[in-house]
Amino acid sequence: MKAVNQFFVSLYFFLAIALLGLVLRAIPAFGLAWEFKNFLHAHSHVAFLGWLHGAFISFVSYIFLKDKLQTKFFKFIYWFTILSIIGMYFSFPIQGYKFFSILFLSLFLVGTYFYLYYFYKNKSETKSYPATYKFIKAGLFLQFLSSLSPWSLVFVLKMFGKKSPFYKFDIFYYLHFQYNGWFLFALLGLTFYLLERRGIHLNTKQIKQIYILMLIAVFFGYFSNTLWANPGYIFNVIALIGGLAELIAFFLLLKILLRYKNYIKNMISDFSYNIFTLILFTLFLKAVLQITGSIQYYADLSFHIRDFIIGYLHLIMLGIFTPFLLVLANELDFIKLKSKSFIVFYSGFLLTETFIFLRAILIWFKIDFNGDIYNKILFYLTIILFTGVLFITTSKHVNHRKL
After folding, report:
1. Which DSSP string do the residues of 327-363 spell out, in sequence order?
2. How many other β-carbons are positioned within 10 Å of the β-carbon of residue 212?
3. Axis crossing angle, helix 233-259 with helix 204-221, rounded to the nearest 10
4. What CA–CA distance (Å, rounded) separates 217 from 326?
């Protein structure tokens, strides 16, 4: 199973979740009698597991499992996880969090354990790309930690109930160790790969500093997800340390990238370089928001005004991880990313993001607005976003021969 084909399948999951996003916008806009939460579960699970996880794994496999992707066991692992994601895509909208959707999620988690076993048994090229491997290895471990949440959820529900803070702590734990753990560490590792694959030997001390700071950020930063329950000021301090660690790590990363700025400019296309600049700016904004979220007032605000959370998650998923994956795929010749397609996608992202935060701010300052008109506008703006994803996904751009 070639890595490029794995990425291409993930790209189709990206289109599938974009379609679900359109449905989610249509339900309140047109008063559709569909269960919003069920579609939301499908959207979020397939976005995390089908698109982002699948795409990152395709690059990890491409780098460290080059000669081990055609074995029967690897193909079994791959299709086992793909079929479980497809199962979630259809079962969540029909029944929500019940037997079949839980079953498919459980099967997916088992599939990831198979992959971890296969990866550590068959990995290669780790000494050729030491910084890359350091962060990928940590990312995969954090992915394993995040997977403990779904297993523990049954215990939490029986012991404390769905209305207990511990239920939400468990859900936020899963999300946090996915996007602030596995995905973010994978992004850093693959960023270093772009340099190491060209023979650049990165400063070991600086890489170690970023690594330690990011571990502090992910473990301490989790507690920002608990502040809505007012557990005590010590948790605000811990969350603040996590946010500061992430910000310092960002500046150390920026220092490395600026050192090789001219080299990077010659190494990648101007289009990719401009997108990387946008990603770096959004990473900086994310770190600032992480620090802001450690302040109790803003932690309470974001918890009670749901659009702040939705906007923040979309900022990370669509403003950081997705552009990064698309540019990386472009630079490794997995795809040929067309500028017009990306511009349509990114314009849709910016417009929908603006309106999501706009509603949150209007609610915050108790300013009246017409909810029906707002929902319809947001739906039509989401069509732009969906169209961009459609253009990216359906254009014929895969170089099968090269990979």
Report:
1. HHHHHTTS----HHHHHHHHHHHHHHHHHHHHHHHHH
2. 12
3. 150
4. 26
What is Dmax (Cα atoms) for the chain? 60
- Checking if the pLDDT of 399 tops 80, the result is no
**Dihedral sign, Cα of residue 217, residue 223, residue 227, residue 233:** negative
The Cα 317–Cα 15 span in angstroms is 14
Distance separating alpha carbons of residues 71 and 84, to the nearest angstrom? 20
Please answer whether residues 242 and 290 qualify as being in contact, where contact means their C-beta atoms are separated by less than 8 angstroms: yes
pTM score: 0.96
Query: Which of 358, 352, 240 shows the shortest CA–CA distance to 298?
Result: 240
Distance of CA 83 to the CA centre of its chain: 20
Taking alpha carbons only, the member of 380, 395, 390 closest to residue 22 is 380
Nearest CA to 223 out of 235, 233, 231, 215 is that of 235
pLDDT bracket for residue 10 (50, 70, 90): very high
DSSP helix/strand/coil, 151:
helix
For the stretch 156-204, pLDDT in tens is 988 898 889 999 999 999 999 999 999 999 999 999 999 999 999 999 9
User: Would the CA dihedral through 15, 66, 325, 290 be positive or negative?
Assistant: positive
Residue pair 220/238 in contact (Cβ under 8 Å)? The answer is: yes
DSSP letter at 161?
A: -
- Residues 57/6, Cβ–Cβ less than 8 Å: yes
What backbone torsions phi and psi does residue 268 show, to the nearest 5 degrees? -120, 165
150 near 105, Cβ under 8 Å?
A: yes
Among 126-135, 365-374, 390-399, which is the least confidently predicted range?
390-399
Cα–Cα dist 136/114, whole Å: 17
**Nearest C-alpha neighbor of 171 from the set 309, 317, 285:** 309
- Chain-wide mean pLDDT for the chain? 95
Sequence-separated contacts (24+) of 237-240 with Cβ below 8 Å: 237/294, 239/293, 239/294, 240/291, 240/294
The tokens for 47 are 């976005």
Q: What's the length of the chain? A: 403
Instruction: Give the other-Cβ count within 10 Å of 124's Cβ.
Output: 12
Using a pLDDT cut of 70, give the percent of the chain over it. 98
- Strand, helix or coil for residue 400: coil
Q: Is the pLDDT of residue 376 over 90?
A: yes
DSSP 71: S
